[in-house]
Every structure is written in structure tokens, then in C-alpha cells.
Amino acid sequence: MPEQLDFTGQVAVITGAGGGVGRAYALDLARRGAKIVVNDLGGATDGTGGSDAMANRVCEEIRALDAEAVPNTDSVATPEGGAAIVQTALDRFGRIDILISNAGILRDKTFAKLEWTNLDAVLDVHLRAAFYVGQPAFRAMKEAGNGGKIMLTTSASGLFGNFGQSNYTAAKLGLVGLMRTLSLEGARNNIQVNAVAPVASTRLTGGETDSGPRAPSRVSPLVTALCHPSCTISGETFMAGDNWYTRVFVGQAEGWAADENLAVTAEDIADHWDTIRDPSKFTEPPHALVSMATLERLRDAESPSN
Fold first, then answer.
1. What is the pTM for the complete model shown?
2. Domain extent listing, the chain
3. How far, in Å, CA of 262 to CA of 52, rounded?
4. Does 168 qualify as catalytic in the annotation?
5. Domain 11-248 class in CATH
6. Are the C-beta atoms of 213 and 243 separated by less than 8 Å?
7. Per residue in 57-83, pLDDT tens?
8. Catalytic option among 25, 132, 168, 245
């Protein structure tokens, strides 16, 4: 058996921790010694309303494990709320080592029927919240000099698309782009940033369960492992659930490169679709500045001197 991952002395802020996968993360980290800020607005699945009952209930569960927890009901959807959530960790525990940005809502509509209020609400709770909570957490980690872990929550819908969820999927894929940039900016301060797409039965997916293959607890092992101080993985996206854990990434096909001195036409493109779209020879650029490396390699291969 591998040695248990210990989080003694670590402080984790988890948004949307009043139920579902957020609660599962909180309980797993608490069992391993972490101190937890349990943030949850306690509202409905569309983001309306609010109550302290959900956050308080999970804090009671954590205290029953002889671990420490403090509830927080500030909204992730405003800069002030995000700052207050992080400040709760600093005021109560003196530090923040882990941020899991997990809070979410749904306001599904087909694109033709989408109202701007439902677009803004979903962007606020998913995408903008990662800025509102993530920036003060990132700054606190950087200033403390102890490194840190940030987990952003994407989804299979965001990664691959889903009918009737244009607002949700746009926000969720935007989080992957944010994660990639934060992983680059955090590297010099030992702040690792990753994203997870949970596969679980929760309030948002139509019914939460604590058992079975879609239990939220089947997601938490991957997130716990990524958040441990010994883990150095950063800038990556994972799907987790149903005892299945896999990495998802953006690849770049080799494509077709015409002679740089030729004037390429639309007809040329149409004639080379198979080569342009062929995924068999792909690369995974680590950042945007090297995304043209494949073209340089193709040009070098075509050079008369080779």
C-alpha cells in the first residue's frame, strides 16, 4: 500500500463545497489533516436564493472527523465576494495553500433562446468567479512564498460541447484557457494550476448520491492527489469519475504547409482537407509562443539542404 498523502498544516478553500463534488473534496482533504474553508452560497441550482445551511452542515461533518473547518457564504460571482472568501482563510487559519474553484449553476437554453441575464449569471459563477476568487488566492500564495495549488473546474460539456448549454460550455472551456495561463504565470512561485472535469451525480446533474459509480467521492481522489505538495503537475486538464481518470489535452495536427512563396487559394485548401485535418501526427504545444514550431519543422524538412 502506498503511504497516505498527508495534508497536515495545509489550508484549503473550496467553493461550492456544500454538496456534490465540492463536499467530497472537503471531506477527503479534511480526513488527511487539511483545514477547510467551506464556501457555499446555499442557493438553488440556478444561482438564486441563499442559505448558510449547506456550508454549516459540511463543517459539522468535518468537525466530526476531528478536523477544522469554517463556513463561508459569500458569493463567488463578485470581486468583493471572492476577496472575502480568501480573506476568511487568512483571518481564521493564517494562510491559503489550496484553492478549488468548484461552485457552479445551470441556466440551460438553446442559443436562439438564450437571454443575456442567463449568460451573465453563468459566466459570473463559473468563469469570472475563477478570477474573483483566484486572483486574491494567487496573490496570497505568491506573497507567502510557500507555493500553492489551484484547481479550476471545467466539464465534459465545455471540452466537447453539449446541446442547449452555450453559456455553460463557453464558460467551462474559458476556464481551461485561464488554467493554462495561470500555470505559466505561477511556475516561478511554485504555484501549480490544473483543471478537472468531474463526472458525477450532483444537484446540477439531476440528483446527488453518496454511493455508486457516479458518487462525487469517485472524483475526489484525483483532485486530492493533484493538490498534495508532492505533486508537480501543472497546466493539465483531467476528467474524473466512475473510477475512470484520464487526461484531456489540446493537440495540433501537423497539417499542410504550402511553399511560402506561393499564393494559396481556397481551391488549394479544399484539395488538401484530408492532410489539414489528419490528426495522426499531432503535437501538444506547451504555450502559444511555440505553436508555430510544427511549421518551422515542415519548412526545414522541405529545405534543399536537407
1. 0.93
2. 11-248, 252-302
3. 66
4. yes
5. alpha beta
6. yes
7. 999 999 999 999 999 999 999 999 999
8. 168
